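G., the chain you wanted modeled:
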Amino acid sequence: MKLYYSTSSPFVRKVMMVAEELGLLDQIEKETVQVHPVNRLQTLIAVNPLGQVPTLITDDGQVLFDSRVICEYLNEKANGSLFGNQDSRWGILSELTALDGSLSALVAARYEISVRPVELQWLAWVDAQMDKARTTLDYFEGKAESLEGRADIALLGLACLLGYLDFRFAHFDWRKSYPKLDAWHAKFSQRPSVLNTVPV
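Predicted structure as tokens:
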């Protein structure tokens, strides 16, 4: 398998965490690409019309877009249980949707303040995107006790969200506002899949 890859993408990180959890890392060839929201990479667009990472080419040549699709493909390939069972699957997917939506909002906010010219930046819009992260963390702080003992795709996504806040939005200081998530993250982040994928 071949993965179009960026070390700074939280969505790529989630795929790599899943691959490590499932024992599939040695089956994935990583091709590092530099993506940009304006200067789109034509070589990546040739295989994924969105021109985004992660993009996975399977061993039989099928091209998969979107981290959730890729993660579910890897989970099925390895006969994993990261997406739960018949009873837990829908709740896990709903949590994952909230986390992915928050990550998308943070990436958009990052582009607004790092790519758009200063005189054109819309800071109220940035604040609204950041608020999606706040309300999502409020939700998980409120159910922190129920996260103990779980190791599914939603919690890998939660680790990616918290890690991306540390990486790109250190001023957000989520640990101060979310002590239960801080305690959970301190333990969960000792997993090799989390430790080995910290963005640089």
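Residues 2-77 form a domain with the Glutaredoxin fold (CATH 3.40.30.10).

Shout if anything looks off.
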